[in-house]
Amino acid sequence: MTVFVNARFLTQPITGVQRYALELSKELKKLRPELRFIAPKNVVHHELAKQLGAEIRGRLTGHAWEQFELPRYALGGLLLSLSNTAPLTKRQQLVVLHDASMFAVPDTYSFAFRNWYRLLFTQLSRSALEVITVSRFSQQELAHYCGVPAERFTVIYEGAEHIRAVPAEPGILEQQGLGHKPYLLVVGSQSPHKNFKRLVEALVQLGETPFDVVVAGGTNAKV
What is the pTM of this model? Predict the structure, then answer.
């Protein structure tokens, strides 16, 4: 059976979900060169698309492409979707759902976004051939909110090996005014569901600390 990969992530800014999809896709391509990556026309990561041998298909973009055109291009094969979204009409597919935040912290998202993703997650968790998530916590949350048994989700933990391929920049700490004392690194966007509020409250409780706090991540919380 031909295995297709939903490469819509090649059209999106790189946050955690896209990083997961990109790094896993690169490793899968090494292991299975015959994998076929299917992407819409609005690819922004051109070098990565070339590396994966991505096939540009269709006239639509975004959710419309994924729901109405992708199933046709993956017809007769198994589809792998790594980034939370996938076509609802495709049965022969493996889907990765990363977390249940649109259920648990709805105020973080716009009305349209959270309701569309709630529909997607609920239906995909019931209809996909296999559903994968990235932690035991997400497994329990998704099972609760989607109304399916926890066993419906296979937990495959995320890796961090890709960071070893990034060359160190010896002067970066000095450039950022760091390195003179220990620091706490917090990685993530400043979206409310990342819980930066609790971090600030904890730091206030601690008072004077012997370390700096460094935040790395996006500042745009809109979805």
Answer: 0.86
